[in-house]
Amino acid sequence: MAQADKQSTYNFIDLFAGAGGLSEGFLQAGFRPVAHVEMNEYAAKTLETRSAYYYLKNTGNLALYRKYLSGTVSRDEFMKQIPASVTKTVINETLSDETLPAVFKTIDGIMKIRGIEKIDVVVGGPPCQAYSLVGRAQTSHMETPMEEDPRNYLYKLYARFLKKYQPRMFVFENVTGIESAQGGVIWKNLQKYLRRVGYKIECHEQNAQDFGVLQNRRRMIIVGWLKNSDLAYPDFVVKKSLAVVNDLFTDLPELHPGESNNTYSKKKPSLYVTETGIRTKDDVLTLQNCRPNIDRDIKIYERAIELWNEGHKRLNYNDLPEELKTHKNRHSFTDRFKVVEGDEHCCHTILAHLSKDGHYFIHPDIRQHRSITVREAARIQSFPDSYYFEGPRTSQFVQIGNAVPPLMARGIAEGIFAQLHKEDAGGQQ
User: Measured between alpha carbons, how far is 129 from 423 in angstroms, rounded to an integer?
Assistant: First the structure.
């Protein structure tokens, strides 16, 4: 039996699913989704669209999906052709003490209809802004300080799922700042909660670039397993790529600020893009559209790109001519204009801040003098071109910036599978 066939015997629930980066990795590794729980309307629609994609792929009808991406059929027309049993696995709900019983009831119903007796894995991580070091640095500008943010305690709801379904393993993903949030109190209580519901846990920092992603993205990955089992924290296989970030853009059309072009260029896609499955021969290009930029920003972008490409130097805001400076703050965030490191093996972390402006993610090609598109951000995160993000552009950027890179998630899923399969085989390799 092929590994993917074996893995299809394992299922998972995805909590705080976002746009589904973590789910996508587990799906690519062959795991079966039972439910995705996500509060944001647009992210939930993205999950529905991706669920529809997998249904059509498994039934040999991707032509319908391509029609949707190319705009030939509307979303309503498209979704009418997808069984409710597929779309109902996406639960668009804000998790709370009040909503939990209804969410449990929905998941229980799905399990009963599909004949699922147990849950193998629970994955997900609560919204990370309340734990992030960047978020905490901005707390003085917020109405509710980070230390009072109710999202700090969403791990308790995560633990409720563990208590009810007793999955064999779980994966809890979050930002590295989770360890120091509120002086370490939250981290200590989180571990206590997870152990209290019957699990041994272990936590290690993981970097997306060690899983073949062309991005420096550090995350804390907590893995838990039932106390009475022979499971353990997986030894994840390191898969660093020799590709450079520019390899992600080779086959994408050149654009200038405000332009849009959803036709692949005539240049061949790089080996990295094809070997990782980011692009396949049947893909339809979407979301390759640029923000408009004023002349002042374009001039700043050109200076930033020139500095980086000629000597790997970053633009210091204070070094700009006075006529190009508009910000009063000249002491902090002097690197507010930052170029994506096109000629290196990984670039800096893609953030949800992309939704506000693109100054921190400038395309490395000086001829284009613009910020990156939604599709380019998605590629940096290792999302396949077939992955369509619903909602307005601001929401698409947030969804991508908050996601776990699918390639990283796949590596995690393969490690989880190895543990489950080893135990099922009686400890035999």
Answer: 36
203 is catalytic: no
pLDDT tens track for 96-131 = 999 999 999 999 999 999 999 999 999 998 875 555
pLDDT of 151 reads 52
> pLDDT tens-digit profile of 207-232?
999 999 999 999 999 999 999 999 99
Does some domain include residue 389? no
Q: Is the pLDDT of residue 133 over 80?
A: no
pLDDT of residue 428: 55
pLDDT for position 152: 58
Q: Is the pTM of this model over 0.70?
A: yes
Angle at which helix 41-58 crosses helix 62-69, to 10 degrees, equals 140
* pLDDT score at 137: 43
pLDDT of 128:
54
Domain that holds residue 96: 10-234+404-424
Q: Percent of the chain beyond pLDDT 70?
A: 91
- Exactly one of 128, 203, 346, 347 is catalytic; name it: 128
Query: Which of 190 and 81 is assigned the larger pLDDT?
Result: 81
The torsion defined by the Cα of 65, 67, 69 and 72, in degrees rounded to 10, comes to -150
Split into its structural domains, the chain has a count of: 1
User: For position 100, which CATH number holds?
Assistant: 3.40.50.150
Is 213 contained in some domain? Answer: yes
What is the pLDDT averaged over residues 388-399?
Answer: 97
Give the separation between CA 270 and CA 288, rounded to whole angstroms.
18
